Amino acid sequence: MAVAEYSWSEHFDVTSEVKSDFEKHGYIIVRGLLSKEEMLKVRKAAEHLNGLRDFTFEIPDGRGRNSSYCIWSQPGNDVTGMVGRIEKVVGTMEKLLEGEVYHYHGKLVMKEPHTGGNVNWHQDYGYWYKNGCLFPHMGSVLIAVDKADRENGCLQVLRGSHKLGRIDHTFVGGQTGADKERLNQVMKIFTRDYVELEEGDALFFHCNLLHSSDKNDSPRRRWNFICSYNRASNNPVYVHHHPQYTPLHKVPNDAILTCENFTDLSGKDFMDPAVDKTIKIDLEDSEKD
Fold it and tell me: What contacts 268, CB < 8 A, 6 or more positions away?
């Protein structure tokens, strides 16, 4: 069972209690961050045949299954870009990370019924560190596009594990995963929380929080929309496949509802998996390492 849960309203703010929960557990959940009306538009944008689906690729999990991903560096001006730019997402993350943030990348993770693969235990900073981000002043917002529960492989987190700092990571299948021997010890002392979400619920989590998800054996798909942010003061020292500091133009909280752009994806800078050194899309090659 997850902890540190709050409900979105126009009066929601990162109070001392919210900040304390984030620092203690490494995450907070904000129920209903996006309304049903907003999620209808997000889902339309995600499912559009001439939209994000044209830029998807698959990553093997090392256990015989794949999950589909679409990753972009800049938010853009379409509906999905509004998600990454609205005040209730960006402003909340800025208060949790205690400073101006910029959009590090956006991601749609697609686990289809009966076939979606595992996401191995890892910290996001386990590989962002390799991109030249010197400090773990980073975090992500995961928004459920579909209902996520244990049956369809919801996210799991080790509560408070961000306090470990960064641990070593290696390739597991096509993914970057936490060192298995260290992970086995860590799992003995931290509580595992299953992050069960309804559509539009959001998980704000620290980049050093260990997290994973199971394969999807259910008849229901499970898609997640993820916006990742880096603090402006933490500009990466290496030029890499994600952006250096780029000022983020925030938009009002009604921007998703007023945006009608579902297909003009110009400026989003979709990622070519061939240039990302933190993933491998050829399982045969990854098994040789």
Answer: 72, 73, 74, 75, 76, 78, 81, 106
Using a cut of 0.90, tell me whether the model's pTM lies above it: yes
Three-class SS of 209-269: CCEEECCCCCCCCEEEEEEEEEEHHHCCCCCCCCCCCCCCCCECCCHHHHCCCCCCCCCCC
CB of 235 closer than 8 Å to CB of 100: no
Residue 89 CA to residue 247 CA, distance in Å, equals 16
Domain ranges of the chain: 5-286
For domain 5-286, which architecture applies? Sandwich (2.60)
Report the C-alpha gap between 188 and 289 in whole angstroms.
28
Cα–Cα dist 275/48, whole Å: 26
Q: Please name the amino acid found at residue 41.
A: K
For residue 50, with 0-12 CB atoms within 10 Å meaning exposed, 13-18 middle and 19 or more buried, which class applies?
exposed
Euclidean distance between the first and the last CA atom of the chain, given in angstroms as a whole number: 37
pLDDT (tens, 9 = 90+) of the chain, 289 residues, equals 678 999 999 999 999 999 999 999 999 999 999 999 999 999 999 998 678 888 998 877 767 787 788 999 999 999 999 999 999 999 999 999 999 999 999 999 999 999 888 888 999 999 899 999 999 999 999 999 999 999 999 999 999 999 999 999 987 655 678 999 999 999 999 999 999 999 999 999 999 999 999 999 999 999 999 999 999 999 999 999 999 999 999 999 999 999 999 999 999 999 877 665 555 554 343 333 3
